[in-house]
Design brief:
Blueprint lengths: L3 E7 L3 H6 L5 H13 L1 E10 L8 E5 L2 E8 L1 H20 L10 H18 L8 E5 L6 H7 L6 E5 L6 H4 L5 H8 L4 E4 L2 H13 L10 E4 L2 E7 L6 H8 L2 H14 L3 E6 L8 H14 L7 E6 L8 H21 L7 E4 L5 H10 L2 E4 L8 H9 L7 E5 L12 E3 L4 H13 L2 H17 L2 H14 L22
Parallel strand pairs: 1-2, 1-5, 2-4, 5-6, 6-7, 7-9, 10-11, 10-13, 11-12, 13-14, 14-15
Antiparallel strand pairs: 3-4, 8-9
Helix pairs in contact: 3-4, 4-5, 9-13, 10-13, 11-12, 11-15, 13-14, 14-16
């Protein structure tokens, strides 16, 4: 294998992230792969510039080379806040009611993908493997192919993939998917998202899908597969055993004074089902007044995408619900919901997880959800907590020994909270042992190895397939 060129919307610089102790498992794994194979991690710096120049900021930290570009305010508004987060994100999470279709968004998305291609193209050498990440950059491979890049290119989609009829509501959806078929390997978190994608290319594009999930298109052989992502289990285990984790554990335990602890850790996003979670907890308190005063919900929800109106609205709604629930169930020495709008380093989160009796991981729709896996990894096997997990999270397909719930059902989640708190120790141990085995055996290194081996080992283009029913055009993929 040649060098690895990782391309994503944002870049995680090892020293900057690691110094704060907040670097996520995916960043740890990709940085490790880059150190092993050599290469570059390319993406947006997160910074604005008055005029786009294509200037590359090249850095080398902890054995990893990064290359970043700045974007103009219009780029950020149309590409990132617009098409990525007001069009694709809600649509991919089945929230068509929040999906905004704006031609300027599509043009900005296409323009920034062109700028990414122009900037990264000179960095790609003939033997390099190119790995593109997520919904921000779906047409990037097609643009690179237009520049003559013949390298193996893979795409991993971290979000869900919507059903065909939902995706068909996106203007120029066929062009967007056609541009994705310039990758050699397309990976999804679960078989459900994979099957949705394959259904689309069959029904909307008239393409044939082989029994091995291969697609033949314009002389190319594209492999589409599910590669469930995991956490960096060894790294997270070290975080659990760290002094900072022990301090966080003791601090939280002391603050609740013997009460049971429920924990939720989610980015502030409508896909996470936080409003429904709060309503379920309120229903639990109402249905079990004997528990009032004895159970605390700690919800950690760092804000994100504050420039998008729907995110401002979810924050206001949650603050209002927290006030209502606390007002109805609090006492002079007790507040049932601790709602915290800030993030914490991973080692501190590990300590909070270990202290919690129950984790509420109840997204309305999630590509995978690594909080569920981190919670399992943080538990004491002799006295583990209980994971309450949404059936609509990708993680539910493997973590079947969690208590699976429908997050839309306030009554079911409330009843399941009671069941989790009352679960006998023997059952908690049995469930945790099975869950831990799944988390440990399918960690992020396993995911990375499976994807890269598939990308490296698959054969090159095959003879051209029959023409699809819907022909792609040379027009922009999304505007």
């Amino acid at each position: 294998m040649g060098r690895l060129i990782v391309i994503s919307n944002r870049v995680s610089v090892p020293s900057a992230a690691g110094a704060a102790g907040a670097q996520g498992g995916l960043a740890v794994a990709l940085n490790s792969a880059l150190r092993t194979h050599g290469g570059i991690w390319f993406g947006w710096s997160g910074q604005e510039t008055a005029e786009f120049t294509g200037h590359l900021d090249m850095q080398r930290n902890d054995g990893v080379t990064t290359a970043t570009i700045d974007l103009e305010p219009q780029d950020i508004d149309e590409y990132y806040n617009g098409y990525a987060n007001r069009t694709l994100w809600p649509l991919f999470h089945y929230r068509i009611d929040l999906t905004e279709y704006d031609r300027n968004f599509g043009e900005g998305y296409e323009r920034v993908n062109e700028r990414f291609a122009d900037s990264v193209f000179p960095l790609i050498e003939p033997d390099d493997i190119v790995w593109i990440h997520d919904y921000h950059l779906l047409p990037l491979a097609s643009i690179l192919r237009g520049k003559g890049v013949q390298n193996r290119i893979g795409l991993f989609v971290h979000t869900p993939w919507p059903p065909t009829r939902l995706l068909a509501s996106l203007p120029f959806h066929d062009r967007l998917v056609a541009s994705m078929l310039q990758h050699d390997v397309i990976g999804f978190q679960t078989t459900e998202w994979l099957e949705s994608f394959l259904h689309y290319v069959q029904k909307e594009m008239g393409l044939k899908v082989g029994l091995d999930n291969t697609i033949e298109y314009e002389g190319r052989r594209i492999v589409a597969r599910a590669f469930p992502i995991g956490i960096d289990y060894p790294e997270f285990s070290e975080a659990v055993a760290s002094p900072a984790a022990a301090e966080a554990h003791d601090r939280l335990k002391a603050s609740v004074r013997g009460r049971k602890i429920l924990i939720g850790v989610d980015r502030l996003d409508y896909s996470k089902g936080l409003g429904e979670r709060f309503e379920s907890f309120a229903r639990f308190l109402s249905d079990h007044p004997e528990r009032t005063g004895n159970v605390v919900l700690l919800q950690i929800a760092p804000p994100s995408r504050g420039d998008v109106a729907s995110y401002q609205q979810i924050r206001e709604d949650l603050e209002r619900k927290t006030g209502h629930i606390n007002g109805a169930h609090a006492d002079v020495d007790f507040v049932p919901i601790r709602y915290v709008n800030r993030g914490y380093p991973r080692n501190q989160l590990a300590g909070f997880y270990r202290a919690a009796d129950v984790a509420l991981v109840t997204p309305l729709r999630d590509g995978m959800n690594l909080v569920a896996k981190e919670y399992i990894a943080a538990q004491d096997p002799e006295d583990p907590g209980v994971l309450v997990l949404s059936q609509f999270a990708g993680a539910a397909l493997r973590l079947k020994d969690a208590l699976l719930v429908n997050p839309h059902s306030v009554e079911q989640v409330a009843e399941t909270i009671q069941r989790a708190l009352d679960m006998p120790l023997d059952e908690r141990r049995r469930r945790h042992a099975k869950l831990l085995a799944a988390v440990r055996d399918e960690d992020v290194s396993h995911w990375l190895d499976q994807f890269l081996r598939t990308l490296e080992d698959e054969d090159g283009p095959v003879e051209a397939a029959p023409e699809p029913a819907t022909q792609p055009t040379t027009e922009p993929a999304c505007s």
